């Protein structure tokens, strides 16, 4: 029960519980390896500078989220405030002390991963959600006054009435439910002119949503269990930090990656009886197959959330179209929402199979193969029988790729039918991954069939998709077989199908210099007549016309950086990576990467305006993936009991101490590097594996290790010496790797080729076709020109 003698800000007690739990986790995780203290929730607090205001969000992991502005009073965005199951509940609230409004613009505000705190002159406000319960906690303490008051804002609550010691509103968009407000500690209330007033000793306010009874029960239960609920939520968030610790010589890098991981985790939620990921906040609160499978490596595999990954795959497989006469037979949903299922994409299904394979590479969970194999087989055989042409290419409609915008839901804005370059790369990978699984199932006929199909596609690809005279890779093949020459970022997803290493370098540099701006990857070259420089410019054109025709898409940053790193250009890649870290820490939504941005800064600006969703799953996830798999270079293959370690740290990252969850173990790495001299120390506590050391330009070494082993590689510019020790510290093996002549020559060529690489630069000009018209009044979503 509540202690009436203390101000009821449960957070203070919950924080003590959290600290104890965190200490236990650190010790328990460190028993067999050197201690690495993870960042704490409190370490990550971001203070908002005076005069600034930033977006923030929290979710309840179960269909509800709150979207706010830190320092803005009377904010009225369409999705402002509390949203539950795609319904808007209310927009915001106001607080008062003794009738005087507490203005956010005058408060000192700090955003933490689990709560927001505003320090006013007369009070301190702490705001947070809870996991699962439909309840908001607005703690008000350190009050200089006798009474505190709260008023809801927004047009989505109506029919307000006093109900005992609470106030009840009807939720307009969910009229079977109510919004109930009550003091944290039960007390007599006053209610006048939509303002609820309680004694200062009440501790603040609880805002519950549900039926009349459910909302009251939630408040009663919080009064009994609030400390535990708050502590459990904070422990869950802290646990993710504990299991994914990172310490480098750059605090901004450590903090940005922690924040991006935690805001991304907000999107992992329950719906349709299982786990999934929202595509983005505030309006993509559905499970989008394509987005979810793109996001899975960074969101749940790199972060070691393997049970969640397994649940996502099995949950989504239940909704596969298994009706053999259906026009979308074999596909998994592109969109799974509360109203129904849409199968309107061709790339979601290959990515589903790819994520099954990726999950197995991270976990070695071969028992899962038997469970999921029927879905993989249907998906692969259906595509072979129904959707491929005589050359083995996967065919599709104009808007059935990730560039899927349609005006009035009818007219594709960036038609890419009927054989997109990235779709062929995904289809090839699906075939190869499916064949791997078939061999695990001893289904040799399936494996042979799918391998043959992959070989047929590959043998045709360079002939049909590459103009060797101009060194150009087509974005897609038209229905008549001609190649489309628009410069888009899609070809960089297909470089595994290119055998010419010079062409791969050429495509990487071409995309970087024509499409990769300091703020992200544009969807279309600015010299194309379809180019739209700004995502939203309603006086000039419909927003959907710009969506994939110039607008920046941050998720493509991942592959652009990967290709640079594969070409030994970690520093070039890191310039973009660092800019995204800056966005998460000091711009836009706290801790988040947006969906989109303009391609060009607007008049008087030096940086672009963000657009689309303020928190986008695949933007965050690809950022995490690139750090783990390519900068740190940790790429597991637990199906074959091996882990590739190919670190390529940028030159200003001198020290790294990190842990990565793989299979049944944890890989702890400590890297210290200065120019050619480096120490790479790895500790492994899982089942025996082979560590494939692919470090700098030294010969690659395959080093078998057992449980508890450690491997230390030292480089001096001429050779790499490697020592292996067992769990007791006893030296068990020594290796020496000389410089690899082929690697050295390759690196020399790459460095020379990319030496003058630069970002794309806006080429402002007057004669842009997309800007040639002016509409007054401006266009709307419903406009038909």
TrEMBL record:
Q: Which GO terms describe its molecular function?
A: 4-alpha-glucanotransferase activity; amylo-alpha-1,6-glucosidase activity
The positions making up the signal sequence are 1-20
Domain of life assignment:
Bacteria
Query: Which InterPro entries does the entry link to?
Result: 6-hairpin_glycosidase_sf, 6hp_glycosidase-like_sf, AGL/Gdb1, GDE_C
The family database entries (PROSITE patterns) matched by this protein are listed as:
PROKAR_LIPOPROTEIN (PS51257)
Pfam families, per database record: GDE_C
Name the GO terms of the biological process aspect: glycogen catabolic process
Which keywords label this protein?
Answer: Signal
Please state every residue range assigned to the domain named Glycogen debranching enzyme C-terminal.
Answer: 267-624
The record's SUPFAM superfamilies line, in alphabetical order, gives:
Six-hairpin glycosidases
Give the protein name, as stated in the record. Glycogen debranching enzyme C-terminal domain-containing protein
Originating organism: Bacteroides oleiciplenus YIT 12058
From the broadest rank down, the organism's phylogenetic lineage runs:
Bacteria, Pseudomonadati, Bacteroidota, Bacteroidia, Bacteroidales
